[in-house]
Specification:
- The structure is a single chain.
- The protein is α+β, with helices and mostly antiparallel strands.
- Among the domains are: about 1-40 and about 45-50; about 135-275, Jelly Rolls (Sandwich).
- The protein has three helices and ten strands, in the order H-H-E-E-E-E-E-E-E-E-E-E-H.
- The chain has helices spanning about 5-35, 130-135, 270-279, and strands spanning about 140-145, 160-165, 170, 175, 180-205, 205-215, 220-230, 235-240, 245-250, 260-265.
- Strand 3 (about 170) and strand 4 form a beta hairpin.
- The longest helix is centred in the first third of the chain and has 31 residues, at about 5-35.
Length: about 280
């Protein structure tokens, strides 16, 4: 029997009790008033169950009760496992522009760009002052010697500088080195004593002039001079060209032996070529 049938049976039993109760109560009341009589009855068999009754309608919703007190906070549960990474969401809105950062380090220089177009001609500048004297090549020297009787077949070191315009004479080697091509003048005035003197002017290892002076027992002076063309890096010096003919004498007290030279004029063609190269 299902729950609906059980409920129906209970309802019929209740209704039967309600209907029979007046009759039973009436009989009992009549029994008290009337003379007693013997009643002999046997209970009948129970009747068939009635039809199930209809479900009653739900009652009205009760009023909302007051809010209860807050319960005790429960303990924090264990941390769950890290879930899988979700799909990337759509890009958000552009945020506000931040402040400019500090400047970075200077990068390496880039490749040379293409040559640009020729610019317009600029305004005429102020005329300058010509310092023509500073453009003129200058070379001149004069040197003496402080020791007598130098060795043969080697440059004589005139080590006492009297004048050296341009610094083209080297007293450590005894050589003049040409810096500007052009026409040069060289001369020498040599005091000799006790020996003969065979001396010559040399250019790049070749004798340009030679002089020979014999000693007669007294002091004498040998001199010579020449004009020559020199190219840049040409070398000029003096040397004794014959064995044991080195009577060159020097005494700081009363006798000097000198070697001198200077540029007469420079090679104009050479300097014109230089000017074209610079231009």
């Amino acid at each position: 029997m299902n729950s609906c049938q059980v409920l129906g049976l209970k309802m019929w039993t209740l209704m039967g009790f309600v209907c029979l109760w007046p009759c039973v109560s009436g009989e009992l009341f009549d029994t008290k008033l009337k003379a007693p009589r013997l009643i002999c009855s046997v209970p009948g068999s129970p009747g068939l169950p009635g039809k199930p009754g209809r479900d009653g309608r739900d009652g009205r919703k009760g009023e909302k009760g007051e809010k209860g007190d807050t319960g005790v906070k429960g303990r924090v549960g264990p941390t769950g496992k890290l879930g899988e990474r979700g799909d990337r969401g759509p890009p958000g809105k552009r945020g506000p522009t931040g402040e400019n950062g500090d400047g970075g380090l200077l990068g390496p220089p880039g490749p040379d760009g293409e040559k640009g177009d020729k610019g317009k001609r600029g305004p005429r500048g102020t005329a300058g002052t010509c310092k023509c004297g500073s453009l003129m090549p200058k070379s001149a020297f004069s040197a003496g010697i402080t020791s007598s009787y130098p060795a043969e077949k080697t440059p004589i070191k005139f080590n006492k500088i009297l004048f050296d315009e341009g610094g083209h004479y080297n007293p450590q080697t005894g050589k003049f080195i040409c810096a500007y091509p052009g026409i040069y003048y060289f001369s020498y005035d040599i005091t000799l004593a006790n020996k003969h003197l065979a001396i010559g002017l040399v250019q790049n290892g070749q004798y340009r002039i030679k002089t020979f002076d014999a000693n007669t027992g007294n002091h004498d002076v040998a001199s010579g001079s020449t004009v020559m063309y020199l190219n840049p890096e040409d070398e000029v010096w003096m040397e004794i060209f014959y064995h044991d003919q080195n009577g060159l004498f020097a005494d700081a007290g009363w006798a000097d032996s000198l070697f001198s030279g200077f540029l007469i004029y420079a090679d104009s063609n050479y300097f014109d070529t230089l000017a074209d190269d610079y231009a």
